[in-house]
Amino acid sequence: MTDRQTVLVLGASGLFGELLARRIVREGIYTLVAAGRGIGALQVLKDQLGCQIELMDREDPTACALALERHLPFAVVDCSGPFQYYGQDPYRFARQVLESNSHYFDIADASAFVGGFKELDQTAKAYGLVAITGASATPAISSAAADVLSADIQRIDSIESAIIPGNKARRTFSVMKAILGQLGQPFEITRYGAKETVYGWDETRQIDLSIPTHAPVTNRLASLVHTPDIDLFPRRYLASTVTASAGLELKTFHRALQLSRWLVRWRVVPTFAPLAAVMRWVASGFLRIGSDTGGMQVVVTGSGDEGTIVRRSWELVANNGRGPEIPTLPVSVLLDKLQDQTVEPGARPALGEVTLDDLQSRFSALKVQTAITEALETPVFRTVLGEQFDSLPVAVQSLHNTVGRAVYEGAAESHGPTGFSGRLAAWLFRFPPKGKGVPVKVTITSKGCGNTKSETWQRDFNGVIFKSHLSVDAEGFAQERFGFMTARLGLHVVDNQLHFPVLKAKIFGCLPVPALLLPTSIAHETIDSQGRFVFDVLIKTPFGARIAHYRGWLIRCSPAV
Question: Which of 217, 433, 404 is nearest to 316 (CA)?
Answer without folding.
Answer: 217
